[in-house]
C-alpha cells in the first residue's frame, strides 16, 4: 500500500504542476501594477523557483511529519486548518460537512435502491419494473443543478418551508436546542435529496442485474425445487448472494465521501470539500490540492482493503482461498 | 444489465407521464408570487434616519485575507474597504479628496507631497492613529518579504518621513501623478499591533483591527463574515448596526435567496436586471441601480501579425461590427459603446474621437483597398491566394465575451472574413497564448483604475513577456503623451494628453473598443440614504439607514 500511495502522490504532484498557471497568478495576472521583479519575488516566496523535483522532495519530507504545509492562497492558513478547523464546531468543519451529506445521501440511496432493485428483478418486465426503471432513469438523466433550482423555487420561495442555501439560519444562535436541530436538519434536506435522487439509478440497476444473475443460478432452482416458499428463496438464499458485489461498490464510494460534489455544494452554498477542492485547483493552490488528493488516496486504498475484508466475512469461498 | 428502457420510453404511457411532469414544472414556473410587500411610502418624511438593522450582502466569492495590501480578489477588497480607510479617497466626481488626511500640500515641482492627518482618529482597539502607522504601512508594502502585488507605485518614493504625529511627507524621484491616489487604504496598518511581526505569519488577516466604518466580529469560513458598526467612526457612527457578507457561490441560488429574504443586496446579471426583476414583487420590495463599471471589453489584434499590421484592415473590421447591436443582445442594453480606454462621462474621456459606424459596404471597400477580394466566389476574401480566416481567443466561463465573439463572427462573415472562436481556460490562455504571443486576435477586458494613467498597457516599452502591451502597440507620440500625463498633477494638462491619446487610439485602432458594461446592484427597499454616483453606491454605506418602523433584523443586539 505504501508504494502505491507514494506513486499516487508523485503522479498527482507532477500533473498538478504541469497544468499551466501558478498560485501567484491571482495577484499578478492582468494586474498592470505588478513589476517583473515583484513577480519573481512572489514566486520565490512561494518556493516556486526551485526545480520541481526538489519541490516534491520538500513536500515529501514534510508529509512524513504529517505536515501538509500552508495554503498558497493569500490567507496563508495551514492546509489542515482549512479542511478540519479545530476552532470550529464539528458540524462546520469542511470535511465533516461533506462526509455527513454523502453518508446521508448514500444511506438514502441504499434504503431506496436495494428494495427497488430486488423487487424489479423478481418482477422482471412487469409494469412495476418498467415504472421503477423509468423513475430511476429520470433521476439519472436529471441535471442536479436544475433539479436543485426547481426544488429551491418550490420549497424555498413559494411554499417557504425550507431554507434555500447555507448550513444554518441567520438567527441560529437565538434558537432553542430543538430549533437548532431542526434548523440544521432542514438545511440538509434538499442537498441530500438531490444528490440521492441523482445517484439512485446506478445502484438500483446494479442491484437489479446482480439479483437477476443470482436468480438464474442452480442453487436457486434447487431451493425452489425443494418446495421452499418463494419469499424464502428470494430473501434468504438469493438476496444474500446478490448483495456481495454491493460491498465492492461501497468500498469504491469511499473517496467520494471526501471529494463531495462540486455542483451540489456550490449551488446550495455549502462550504464542503468539493467547493474547496475546486477552488484550490482553479487557483493552483498546490499544497491544498496535494493534501486533499493524498487523503483521498489513503481513503481509496483503505476502502479497497475494507471491501476485501468485508468479502472475506461475507463469502466463505473467498476465505478458504 | 438489460437495456429495456428505450422500449418503455416509447410507450404511450410514458409520454403521458412526461407531459404531466412538464405541466407541473411549468406551473411552478408561471404561478404568480405571493408578495411579501412592505407597504411604505418612499417619499414619506416621517421615516427618519435611525440606528439599527442588518444589511446582508450576497457574494459569489469569499474573501481570503482582510489586509488590503495582501488581497488579490475583489471580495477581500470589498470587505477590507469597510474596515480600513486610506489617507485619500475618490470623491463622487472622481477627484481625490482627503480621508484620513485632512489636507495635503504638493510642492511646486510636484516632487514632495506632505499629508496633514486628522487628529484623534482611533483604531477600533482604542489606540490613536498617527503618522507612524502610515510609515509602518509604507515600510511593510515595500518590504521584500511582503507578498503584495501593489508595490510598484511605492517604489517610486525616494524618501518617506514622519514630520510629527500628524504630518507625513513623501518625496519622489520624478513627479508622478498617480502617486496621490496611491495613498489609499493599501498603506495604513496599526503599528502598535504589527511591529516586529511577519505579516503573513500572524492572524491579523483574518482578525483585522482597522478604523473604518465597520469592524469584523465573526468570520465563519465558507459561509459569512459578520461585521459590526464602529460606533467611534471618525466621520459618524454608521446607522446600520451590522453588515453581513454572505458567501453563495452560485448566482441563481443567490437570486432565490434575494426573493426569499435571505439577502438584501446583490449584483444582478443583465437578464435578471431587465427581465426577471421586472415585476410588481421586485418593484415593491427592491430598488435597482445602474452605473458604468470602470472597465471595458475589447477585441485586440496582434499587431505583429502581417494581416493586422495594415490599419485599413483593422478599420474595416471596426466598420463591420455593430456595437449597439452587441450591447442590446449581449448586455440587454445595460452598457454603453466604448470609443477608447476610458469610461464615458469621466474627466479623461474624450467624446470627440473618430467613430466607426456600422457600415459593411465601407468595410468591404477598405478591405478591397488593402488587397482583400473574393476572387473564387466562395464568400471568403483572399489575398495572395490565402483566405482571410482568423481565430478570436477568449477565456472560458465568460458568457458575455462568448456571445460577443459569436456576434462578431457572424458580422464579419458578411464582409467575407471567416472567424473562429476558441475558448480557453484562464491560466492556459494567459500563459500559453497571451504571454507567448500565439494569437491573432483576443477578446478580453480591462478593469481600469480611476486614475487615467495607462502607461503599462500602451507604452512601447511594455511589450516583454508578462507585460501588458501584448498586442505590441508602438506609437512614439503616444509614448511621449503617456510620459507627460503621469508627470504632472495639473488636471488640465493631463486631460490634454489623454484626450490626444484617445484620438490616436481611435484612429490607429490597435483594439476595437467594444463596450463599457453597467454594474446593476439591487438593494432591499427598506434601505434609505443611498446616493448613486459614478463610483457606485457603497461609498457612503455608513450613511445608509433603515427607518425604525421598517427594521427587520434586530436579533443580534447584545
Unreliable stretches of chain B: 1-42
Q: State the separation between the terminal residues of chain A, measured CA to CA.
A: 21 Å
Using a beta-carbon cutoff below 8 angstroms, give the protein chain pair with the largest interface and the number of residues from each chain.
A-B, 72 and 76 residues
The CATH architecture of the largest domain in chain B comes to Roll
List keywords for this structure.
heterodimer; A: 321 residues; mainly alpha; 15 helices; 73% helix; globular; B: 558 residues; alpha+beta; D-Maltodextrin-Binding Protein, domain 2; Dipeptide-binding Protein, domain 1; Dipeptide-binding Protein, domain 3; 3 domains; seven-stranded mixed sheet; four-stranded mixed sheet; 22 strands; 31% helix; 20% strand; disordered N terminus
List the helices and strands and how they pair.
The complex is a heterodimer of chains A (321) and B (558).
Chain A: H1 2-18, H2 25-28, H3 36-45, H4 52-64, H5 79-83, H6 94-122, H7 127-141, H8 144-158, H9 177-215, H10 218-225, H11 230-259, H12 262-267, H13 273-282, H14 286-314, H15 316-320
Helix pairs in contact in A: 1-14, 6-7, 6-9, 6-11, 7-9, 8-9, 9-11, 10-11, 11-14, 13-14
Chain B: H1 5-10, H2 12-30, E1 54-59, H3 74-83, E2 88-90, E3 96-98, E4 101-106, E5 112-117, H4 131-142, H5 152-155, E6 157-164, E7 167-172, H6 179-182, H7 191-194, E8 214-220, E9 224-229, E10 242-247, H8 251-260, E11 265-267, H9 270-276, H10 280-285, E12 286-288, E13 291-292, E14 295-301, H11 306-309, H12 311-320, H13 323-330, E15 335-337, H14 360-369, E16 382-383, E17 386-387, E18 389-395, H15 399-413, E19 418-424, H16 426-434, E20 441-447, H17 455-458, H18 476-486, H19 491-508, E21 511-519, E22 521-524
Parallel strand pairs in B: 1-10, 18-19, 18-20
Antiparallel strand pairs in B: 2-3, 4-5, 5-7, 6-7, 8-9, 9-10, 11-22, 12-22, 13-21, 14-20, 14-21, 15-21, 16-17
Amino acid at each position: 500500500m505504501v508504494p502505491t500511495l507514494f506513486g499516487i502522490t508523485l503522479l498527482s504532484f507532477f500533473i498538478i504542476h504541469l497544468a499551466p498557471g501558478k498560485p501567484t497568478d491571482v495577484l499578478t495576472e492582468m494586474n498592470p501594477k505588478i513589476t517583473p521583479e515583484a513577480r519573481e519575488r512572489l514566486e520565490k516566496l512561494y518556493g516556486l523557483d526551485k526545480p520541481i523535483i526538489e519541490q516534491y522532495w520538500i513536500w515529501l519530507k514534510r508529509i512524513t511529519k504529517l505536515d501538509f504545509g500552508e495554503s498558497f492562497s493569500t490567507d496563508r492558513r495551514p492546509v489542515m486548518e482549512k479542511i478540519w478547523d479545530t476552532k470550529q464546531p464539528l458540524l462546520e468543519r469542511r470535511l465533516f460537512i461533506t462526509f455527513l451529506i454523502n453518508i446521508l445521501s448514500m444511506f438514502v440511496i441504499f434504503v431506496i435502491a436495494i428494495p427497488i432493485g430486488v423487487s424489479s428483478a423478481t418482477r422482471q418486465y412487469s409494469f412495476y419494473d418498467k415504472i421503477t426503471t423509468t423513475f430511476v432513469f429520470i433521476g439519472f438523466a436529471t441535471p442536479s443543478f436544475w433539479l436543485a433550482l426547481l426544488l429551491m423555487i418550490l420549497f424555498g420561495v413559494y411554499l417557504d418551508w425550507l431554507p434555500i442555501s447555507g448550513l444554518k439560519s441567520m438567527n441560529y444562535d437565538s434558537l432553542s436546542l430543538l430549533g437548532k436541530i431542526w434548523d440544521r436538519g432542514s438545511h440538509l434536506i434538499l442537498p441530500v435529496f438531490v444528490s440521492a435522487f441523482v445517484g439512485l439509478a446506478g445502484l438500483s440497476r446494479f442491484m437489479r442485474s446482480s439479483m437477476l444473475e443470482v436468480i438464474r443460478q442452480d442453487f436457486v432452482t434447487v431451493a425452489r425445487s425443494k418446495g421452499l416458499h418463494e419469499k424464502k428463496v428470494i430473501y434468504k438464499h438469493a438476496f444474500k448472494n446478490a448483495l456481495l458485489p454491493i460491498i465492492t461498490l461501497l468500498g469504491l464510494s469511499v473517496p467520494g465521501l471526501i471529494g463531495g460534489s462540486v455542483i451540489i455544494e456550490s449551488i446550495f452554498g455549502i462550504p464542503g470539500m468539493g467547493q474547496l477542492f475546486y477552488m484550490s485547483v482553479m487557483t493552483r493552490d498546490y499544497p491544498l490540492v496535494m493534501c486533499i488528493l493524498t487523503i483521498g488516496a489513503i481513503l481509496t486504498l483503505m476502502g479497497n482493503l475494507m471491501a476485501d475484508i468485508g468479502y472475506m466475512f461475507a463469502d466463505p469461498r473467498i476465505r478458504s482461498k | 444489465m438489460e437495456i429495456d428502457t428505450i422500449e418503455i420510453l416509447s410507450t404511450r404511457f410514458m409520454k403521458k407521464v412526461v407531459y404531466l411532469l412538464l405541466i407541473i414544472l411549468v406551473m411552478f414556473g408561471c404561478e404568480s408570487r405571493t408578495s411579501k410587500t412592505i407597504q411604505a411610502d418612499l417619499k414619506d418624511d416621517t421615516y427618519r434616519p435611525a440606528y439599527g438593522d442588518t444589511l446582508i450582502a450576497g457574494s459569489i466569492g469569499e474573501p481570503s485575507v482582510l489586509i488590503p495590501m495582501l488581497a488579490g480578489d475583489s471580495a477581500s477588497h470589498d470587505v477590507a474597504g469597510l474596515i480600513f480607510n486610506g489617507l485619500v479617497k475618490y470623491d463622487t466626481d472622481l477627484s481625490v479628496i482627503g480621508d484620513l488626511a485632512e489636507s495635503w500640500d504638493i510642492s511646486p515641482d510636484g516632487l514632495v507631497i506632505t499629508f496633514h492627518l486628522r487628529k484623534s482618529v482611533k483604531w477600533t482597539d482604542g489606540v490613536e492613529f498617527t503618522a507612524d502607522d502610515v510609515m509602518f504601512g509604507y515600510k511593510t508594502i515595500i518590504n521584500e518579504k511582503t507578498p503584495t502585488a501593489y508595490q510598484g507605485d511605492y517604489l517610486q518614493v525616494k524618501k518617506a518621513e514622519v514630520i510629527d504625529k500628524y504630518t507625513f511627507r513623501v518625496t519622489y524621484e520624478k513627479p508622478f501623478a498617480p502617486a496621490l491616489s496611491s495613498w489609499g487604504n493599501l498603506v495604513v496598518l496599526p503599528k502598535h499591533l504589527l511591529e516586529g511581526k511577519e505579516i503573513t505569519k500572524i492572524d491579523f488577516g483574518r482578525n483585522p483591527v482597522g478604523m473604518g466604518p465597520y469592524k469584523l466580529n465573526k468570520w465563519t469560513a465558507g459561509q459569512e463574515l459578520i461585521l459590526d458598526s464602529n460606533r467611534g467612526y471618525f466621520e459618524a457612527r454608521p446607522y446600520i448596526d451590522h453588515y453581513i457578507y454572505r458567501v453563495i457561490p452560485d448566482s441563481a441560488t443567490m437570486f432565490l435567496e434575494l426573493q426569499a429574504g435571505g439577502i438584501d443586496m446583490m449584483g444582478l446579471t443583465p437578464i435578471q436586471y431587465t427581465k426577471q426583476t421586472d415585476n410588481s414583487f421586485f418593484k415593491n420590495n427592491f430598488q435597482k441601480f445602474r452605473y458604468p463599471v470602470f472597465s471595458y471589453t475589447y477585441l485586440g489584434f496582434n499587431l505583429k501579425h502581417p494581416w493586422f499590421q495594415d490599419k485599413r484592415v483593422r478599420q474595416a473590421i471596426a466598420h463591420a461590427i455593430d456595437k449597439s447591436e452587441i450591447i442590446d443582445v449581449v448586455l440587454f442594453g445595460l452598457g454603453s459603446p466604448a470609443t477608447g480606454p476610458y469610461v464615458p462621462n469621466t474627466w479623461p474621456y474624450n467624446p470627440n474621437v473618430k467613430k466607426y459606424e456600422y457600415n459593411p459596404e465601407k468595410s468591404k471597400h477598405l478591405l478591397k483597398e488593402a488587397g482583400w477580394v473574393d476572387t473564387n466566389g466562395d464568400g471568403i476574401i483572399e489575398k495572395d491566394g490565402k483566405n482571410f480566416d482568423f481565430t478570436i481567443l477568449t477565456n472560458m466561463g465568460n458568457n458575455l465575451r462568448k456571445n460577443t465573439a459569436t456576434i462578431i463572427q457572424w458580422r464579419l462573415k458578411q464582409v467575407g472574413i471567416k472567424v473562429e472562436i476558441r475558448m480557453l481556460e484562464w491560466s492556459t490562455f494567459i500563459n500559453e497564448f497571451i504571454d507567448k504571443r500565439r494569437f491573432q486576435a483576443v477578446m478580453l477586458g480591462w478593469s481600469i483604475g480611476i486614475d487615467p494613467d495607462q502607461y503599462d498597457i500602451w507604452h512601447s516599452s511594455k511589450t516583454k513577456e508578462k507585460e501588458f502591451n501584448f498586442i505590441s502597440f508602438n506609437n512614439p507620440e503616444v509614448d511621449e503623451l503617456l510620459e507627460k500625463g503621469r508627470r504632472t498633477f495639473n488636471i488640465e494638462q493631463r486631460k490634454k494628453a489623454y484626450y490626444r491619446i484617445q484620438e490616436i487610439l481611435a484612429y490607429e485602432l490597435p483594439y476595437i473598443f467594444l463596450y463599457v458594461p453597467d454594474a446593476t446592484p439591487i438593494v432591499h427597499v427598506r434601505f434609505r440614504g443611498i446616493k448613486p454616483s459614478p463610483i457606485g453606491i457603497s461609498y457612503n454605506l455608513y450613511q445608509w439607514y433603515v427607518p425604525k418602523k421598517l427594521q427587520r433584523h434586530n436579533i443580534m443586539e447584545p
